[in-house]
Write a structure and sequence with these properties.
Number of helices of chain A: 11
CATH class of the largest domain in chain A: Mainly Beta
Distance between the termini of chain A: 66 Å
Number of strands of chain B: 0
Structural class of chain A: alpha+beta
Oligomer: heterodimer
Shape of chain B: elongated
Number of domains of chain A: 2
Number of domains of chain B: 1
Largest interface: A-B, 77 and 77 residues
Distance between the termini of chain B: 53 Å
CATH topology of the largest domain in chain A: outer membrane lipoprotein receptor (LolB), chain A
Helix content of chain A: 25-40%
Chain lengths: ~350, ~200
């Protein structure tokens, strides 16, 4: 049987639905471009690339200026390695999550914090990924306790990476540290701390600093007066606002916050799989997420605490299986109900001594 | 409705009226970098959509990077009135690199790529993108080469003409035609297979 149905139409109809970029996304991109353009302004000076922080995005200031943006700040300076490293992260003021936390996770976190300090100085994670329509593969991650991360597809490759300290990725270090510290906090505090560990955390004070920095930069590049004036007005609005109003001006949406928190916690549970304190902190934070479901079940015959996040669109969900006694990540999958999993990952976690990779006892 | 480019309507309109084509705007931006913001305002939504369709939420960062790269390369712009194909070409290259950025892709995509090496690079590219597209479209995209897939998506998602795709990807228009023809043929074969399956 044949049809005259146009193939391109068929493809176009099945492309994922994408909303138009919201104000936050647009302003982030615009700010990043502004900051980048400022480096090309006349009389520029030699400089390292600056990280950019974005604080809030609102519509219109109290005095009526239609302002889209705005804040550029000096973040931690780091070289750009890919597009994502140079893009400002959404700024951050947690708005709620003043919840008690899911009891199963709280109990497991409490148990885990009583574990003795782990041996060795690094966590070795062997991952095995399987996909419905693609070849599976394995990879080896090494997370040193000092925050450095190395990868190898094989042990030999990992050793080669270790031999070159410049290959270390330290981006996760802040999240892992925050999660470790969060182990002794309340769930809401833990969520806040881990969320704030995103690459460009900020709050109202940082937002104000960012506005000031933006003014300096835009002034240096002789930006359009109206834009500078708009930022001045935003700064005035934040400066004279009540604390609650200032926080509102600087705050991202709760959905954005939850999404970042989920991602950070996943990073923590993987990168800190060998560290009880990090696992406990991540579990406390995860226990506050409203779209997370926690169940006690088994995976491959092993008792696990299963954490499922349903915040995603199109009925997609991600699930983490943690060992029911230790909280160590053993399995993750993502997929849409009624369809084969999009991805399925199993983890084998050991503690080692780096750089020898000898098992730690 | 939000004001574009920081709400500086008067200044933006001044630039827009004086420099009505992208080429003129880009030329002007060589003297006054801030003028390049007009290019952003004109094309951000389209480039954003293209990148997010292909890479999911992380595509937002790729879209933003596209304009920074374009800004850096503005002195090399070919002078055509419409900068869209040029921007799509930059975005396509950045997406390709992004998909291949194994460790970052792993964390950002979560549900897709791993840390491919060697021959697995191409697999990862397909995997990350295919999972974003959903199983039905993934089954088709998985049958295409990277070049065919990019041409097809620039056409179907970016809504570029063959000529524009040729500009975006830097290949002759005849090559674009043959790539899209091959892609369509494979899509058709897949649809025929589906129909046969349903018939039986």
């Amino acid at each position: 049987m044949t049809t005259d149905f146009d193939e391109l139409t068929w493809v176009a109809e099945r492309l994922p639905e994408v909303d138009e970029p919201d104000g936050i996304a647009t302003d982030r991109a615009r700010l990043a471009l502004l900051e980048h353009m400022s480096a090309a302004a006349p009389a520029r000076r030699p400089r390292r690339r600056l990280g950019v922080r974005l604080a809030a995005v609102g519509g219109v200031t109290a005095v009526g200026a239609a302002v889209g943006v705005i804040a550029v700040g000096h973040g931690a300076e780091h070289p750009a390695k890919s597009p994502t490293t140079t893009v400002p992260r959404v700024a951050i003021v947690r708005q709620h999550h003043q919840v008690a936390g899911h009891p199963v996770l709280l109990r497991l976190a409490s148990d885990v914090t009583k574990a003795p300090p782990p041996p060795g100085n690094a966590t070795l994670v062997v991952r095995h990924h399987t996909f419905p329509n693609s070849p599976s593969f394995s990879g080896i991650d090494l997370y040193e306790d000092n925050g450095a991360y190395y990868y190898g597809a094989t042990v030999d490759e990992l050793r080669q990476s270790l031999a070159d300290p410049s290959s270390a990725d330290k981006e996760l270090g802040g999240i892992l540290t925050a999660a470790a510290n969060a182990a002794s906090m309340t769930p809401a505090q833990a969520a806040n701390a881990i969320y704030q560990a995103s690459p460009a955390p900020t709050g109202v004070p940082t937002y104000r600093t960012g506005l000031l920095t933006a003014l300096k930069k835009l002034g240096a590049m002789k930006a359009k007066p109206a834009l500078i004036e708009a930022i001045r007005r935003r700064l005035a609005a934040v400066s004279h606002a009540t604390p609650a109003e200032a926080q509102r001006l600087a705050a991202p949406s709760q959905a954005t916050i939850d999404n970042y928190l989920w991602g950070n916690c996943m990073d923590a549970l993987e990168g800190g799989a060998g560290r009880p304190d990090i696992r406990a902190g991540a579990m406390l934070a995860l226990s506050t997420l409203p779209d997370v479901r926690v169940t006690q079940t088994t995976f491959d015959g092993q008792a696990v605490v299963q954490i499922t996040n349903t915040q995603f669109s199109d009925h997609y969900a991600e699930t983490l299986d943690l060992d029911a006694h230790t909280g160590v990540l053993v399995h993750m999958n993502g997929g849409t109900a009624g369809q084969p999993d999009s991805v399925d990952v199993t983890y084998r976690v050991t503690r080692v001594s780096a750089p020898s990779l000898d098992p730690a006892h | 409705m939000r004001e574009p480019w920081g709400g500086d309507r008067s200044s933006r309109d001044m630039h827009a009226s004086q420099t009505s084509t992208d080429a003129a705007v880009i030329r002007a931006s060589r003297l006054d970098p801030a003028v390049f913001g007009v290019v952003f305002d004109r094309h951000w939504v389209r480039i954003h959509r293209y990148c997010v369709v292909r890479a999911g939420p992380p595509g937002e960062d790729v879209a933003a990077e596209t304009f920074r790269v374009a800004f850096d390369r503005r002195s090399d712009y070919d002078g055509r009135d419409d900068a869209a194909p040029w921007l799509y070409g930059i975005a396509t290259n950045l997406l390709r690199n992004w998909f291949r950025s194994a460790s970052r892709g792993e964390r950002a995509l979560r549900r897709s790529a791993g840390h491919p090496v060697g021959d697995e690079l191409e697999d990862a590219l397909e995997r990350a993108e295919a999972q974003r597209m959903g199983p039905e479209l993934a089954a088709v995209l998985g049958r295409l080469t990277a070049d065919e897939r990019e041409a097809l998506l620039l056409h179907a998602c970016g809504e570029l003409t063959y000529d524009q795709i040729a500009r975006a990807t830097g290949v002759p228009i005849g090559t674009v035609r043959s790539r899209i023809h091959r892609a369509r043929t494979r899509v058709r074969a897949h649809l025929d297979t589906l129909e046969l399956t349903h018939d039986h």
